[in-house]
Amino acid sequence: MELDIAPIGDRFDLYDELGGGWPEFMSKDPTGALYYRYFDRFWPEFSLLAVDKETGRAVAKAHSVPFAWDEDPAGGLPEGGWDWVIRQAVHDHLSGTKPTMVSALEINIRRDLRGCGLSGRMLSAMRDNAAEHGFTDLVAPVRPSGKHAQIRQPIDAYAYATRDDGLPVDPWLRVHVRAGATIVNVAHYSMTYAGTLEQWRSWTGLPFDATGPVDVPDALSPVHCDVDQDHAVYVEPNVWVHHRI
Question: How many angstroms separate the Cα of 152 from the Cα of each of 188, 220, 240?
Fold first, then answer.
């Protein structure tokens, strides 16, 4: 498939075709809402859209943000992961602080084309885009795509598990490592958000009627449910990876 990969620009009619693709509860992170409200104004050149040249249809998108971090990312990145880097990028933009590197945030492939190798092509385009803007480091708080199937396994064990060939057992971490990335550290509270039990019932279709951990489909760790306090909290771990460009 021959692709035209470029910043979204004014092609939001095509961009909107790629909406969804995540479980409903994933859209409730307030920090994510902060990013998606402003990304086209604050960092328009760091959101890429891939269009099939033959059909003219959008096939994938890739979001990233520039941010300031004075330390060597290989030495460790913040535990706050995805939420942290979005807030950092917003603070840097509003304060006029010069960014020093780029963080990937999302690669989303059209549902009917998943498993066709497009994620690797979009990652490569994201790396190239960072280099074109003068950056030598791309990091990513990766949401390991296979972790939901082992929801009770500690992330510190899952993140570093490897196959016989030495590559990560997780498919999405494997894409990054094959592209030259190194796994840096776990971000134990990369996404954190709460809701009432009724909200969680509406988001998941689950009863949320007993205090304790709740295994929610597609979640990477159990949701903490407290019936007496009428709330549940989801804390998602991610895995920081680092690409030297």
Answer: 14, 8, 20
Instruction: Tell me the CA distances in angstroms from 17 to 9, 13, 87, 108, 109, one per residue in order.
Output: 15, 7, 27, 11, 11
Residue 176 structure tokens = 């990054």
Cα 38 from Cα 164, distance rounded (Å): 43
Residue 13 tokens, joined = 């009619």
**Least reliable range by pLDDT among 102-116, 152-166, 219-233:** 102-116
- Are 196 and 233 in contact by the 8 Å Cβ rule? The answer is no
Give me the mean pLDDT over the 72-101 stretch: 98
**Mean per-residue pLDDT, 19-29:** 87
**Token duo for residue 1:** 């498939």
Given the structure tokens 């880097």, which residue do they identify?
Answer: 85
Closest C-alpha among 228, 233, 225 to residue 207: 225
In terms of Cα–Cα distance, which of 78, 43, 187, 71 is closest to 137?
Answer: 71
pTM above 0.85, yes or no: yes
Task: Decide: 139 and 243 in contact? Cβ < 8 Å.
Answer: yes
Give the number of residues written for the chain: 245
Residue 47, Cβ density class (10 Å: 0-12 exposed, 13-18 middle, ≥19 buried): buried
Question: How far, in Å, CA of 10 to CA of 183, rounded?
Answer: 35
